[in-house]
Amino acid sequence: MIDHLSMIVDIHVHIPFLDLEKVQPGWRETFKEMLEAGERAGIDKQVVLGLSKNNELVKELLDAFPGKLIGFIRGICQDPDAPAILEKFVKVYGFKGVKIHSEPNLPLMGLLVGHPIFLKAAELRVPVLIHSWHEEEGLTQEAREVIGAEHVFPMRIAAELGKNYPNTTFIFAHAGGMWVKAFQAAKHYPNLYFDTSGFDPERGIVEKAVEVLGPERILFGSDAPGRNYAAQLAKVQYADISENDKRLILGENAAKLLELV
């Protein structure tokens, strides 16, 4: 049985039907259905992450569904205008963070070129959410090609970011991919967080995160529409952790981090 929980915040959702440069027809109607599905699952607020150059589309959604959505811009590490874009969307439109993903010809090992974005995020007191998936160590070349270079994320980069940018809050998506290594790499850096989004509900992930990092550094995320809200919620709701830990992960941590209360 699940106890009554406070506000639930999904830190990781996307615009549906999105490729690198455009969205397909009907995406607005599909997003409305997606939002309603999240609400039926008990989710109060959803963080919509910008991908590629669609920050204006995220703003459009925030305007269309006031009070229900939170915007993160897409930050492009190689774009010298990225810090100014982040500042504009935070100060003018009320966005709450920035999402870093893979970029053409720039594997995730090149994240350290995001220095200007990381400093601006610290100045604005907003988090940087970074796509992360697989640890490169031990992967064969064939495996790297199957996974895709943009999905190979050595968790030593997390430690470097935590050490070099102590005033910037980083959220690593998908529990860092190889979650056992990821949590250990990040445990000494209190500015490093993880979301629970977008991987199969493997037994023990949430429990191990709480054990290594503490419940205050874990955030619920679904990765909708690519994942089902209810299934992703269940990973936290039925984890072998305390009800207080569940409340923190499902919403209270995000509310504090994003200054929603």
SSE string: EHEHEHEHEHHEHEHEHH
The CATH class, by name, is: Alpha Beta
Count of runs of 4 or more consecutive helical residues: 10
Please identify the oligomeric state: single chain
The radius of gyration is 17 Å
β-strand number: 8
Written description of the protein model:
With 261 residues, the chain is α/β, with parallel strands linked by helices. The protein has a single domain (9-257), classed as Metal-dependent hydrolases (TIM Barrel). It has helices at 27-40, 55-64, 82-91, 115-124, 141-147, 156-164, 179-186, 205-213, 229-237, 243-257; strands at residues 9-13, 45-49, 69-75, 97-100, 128-130, 170-172, 192-195, 218-219. The protein has an eight-stranded parallel β-sheet with strand order 1-2-3-4-5-6-7-8. Helix 3 runs parallel beside helix 4 and helix 7 (179-186) packs parallel to helix 8 (205-213). 47% of the residues are buried. The mean pLDDT is 85.
State the main characteristics.
261 residues; alpha/beta; TIM Barrel; eight-stranded parallel sheet; 39% helix; globular
Describe the protein's topology:
Elements: E1 9-13, H1 27-40, E2 45-49, H2 55-64, E3 69-75, H3 82-91, E4 97-100, H4 115-124, E5 128-130, H5 141-147, H6 156-164, E6 170-172, H7 179-186, E7 192-195, H8 205-213, E8 218-219, H9 229-237, H10 243-257
Parallel strand pairs: 1-2, 2-3, 3-4, 4-5, 5-6, 6-7, 7-8
Short description:
This protein has ten helices and eight strands. The chain has helices at residues 27-40, 55-64, 82-91, 115-124, 141-147, 156-164, 179-186, 205-213, 229-237, 243-257; strands at 9-13, 45-49, 69-75, 97-100, 128-130, 170-172, 192-195, 218-219.
